[in-house]
Amino acid sequence: MNDSMHQPNWEGAVNARQVLGKIYRMGRSEWLTTTGWQQAYADGVRTVIDLRNPDERVRRHTDPSVDEAAKAGISIINSPTEEPGHPEFEALAVPYMNHPRMYPENLAFFPERIAEVFHRIAAAEGKIVLHCSAGRDRTGLIVSMLLELVDREDLLEPHYEAALRGINDWHRISSYKHPHESYIEEQDLLGPLRERLEALGEFVRTLRVDDFLREHGLSDAELGQIKDRLS
């Protein structure tokens, strides 16, 4: 496994792996157990940035019960990548933003929200966990931009493939039946994976992340802080 894709030992974590340096990615934080939160803290995590919309941040009946004291010392920040109920975006993102071909649309409709995520990363303390619901596409959007920012495009495809396979494997064993997604057998996964990787490559080829972030309010100091967290 690539040394940037270390999978942390946090009990309950789904689709979790290191991006680079002090930044990790994963699926829903509600999957973490009390022990999982304690293990993340012991590993140096002090900031969790939740990219979901507020109405998604709810506990499911299949989620573990967690002692809230286990989260002490970890700042949990909600910084959505999109505006809930936006009619034009929702017409494109059906049933939701679940494919790299939608990444350019997300940036075009909500550049300030994307920039806010990066403000949060720059200001964060300790190690940082980025997550959405699956840990695949909203997380994938931000992770892809981070990797481009530090010229690590070589990690784009491995990260996206691992995220897609990680949540697909979870659907195979999860007791919660997702309303829109289910486990896909390997022979049926290869075509969609190839299509998604092509769309991801096209997205990154058409974007200079440092220019985008400067245009939308990030300072050189903040960009330096973000790059330090990825080093």
From TrEMBL:
Domain Tyrosine specific protein phosphatases: 108-147
InterPro entries, A to Z: Prot-tyrosine_phosphatase-like, Tyr/Ser_Pase_IphP-type, Tyr_Pase_AS, Tyr_Pase_dom
Lineage: superkingdom: Bacteria
GO molecular function terms listed in the Swiss-Prot or TrEMBL record: phosphoprotein phosphatase activity
Name the record gives this protein: Protein tyrosine/serine phosphatase
